[in-house]
Amino acid sequence: MTENYTLTAMQKEVDQYIQQFKSGYFTPLAQMARITEEVGELAREVNHFYGEKQKKATEAPNTVKEELGDILFVTLIMANSLDIDLTEVFENNMKKFNQRDYNRFERKEEK
């Protein structure tokens, strides 16, 4: 896919996907459980790829990239169900990090 997505477009597409099902959005608690499950799967993949624990020959060849995609998807679902605009959240977080953490880490020397 070569289309460039904004967070707003991603949230809209996810909503269109969810709206086709009778059950619609799950409860926030169920969604939190799903996010937790996906983060666990990401941790497992990171451990297999970057850590010492090798996968069993019988395990599916998932990737860190796939698991991050799953986390993004369930995050979009949860944001939609709670009527949270992730673009606004991102902009506010970047302001916070750029102000609060401006001197937190040593910066690279400018060239």
From TrEMBL:
Keywords: Hydrolase
GO MF annotation: an example: hydrolase activity
Domain annotation NTP pyrophosphohydrolase MazG-like: ranges: 26-105
Pfam families found in the cross-reference section: MazG
Gene3D superfamilies: MazG-like
Domain of life of the native organism: Bacteria
InterPro entries: MazG-like_dom, MazG-related_YpjD, YpjD/YvdC
Keyword Hydrolase attached: yes
Descriptive protein name: Nucleotide pyrophosphohydrolase
Native species: Tetragenococcus muriaticus 3MR10-3
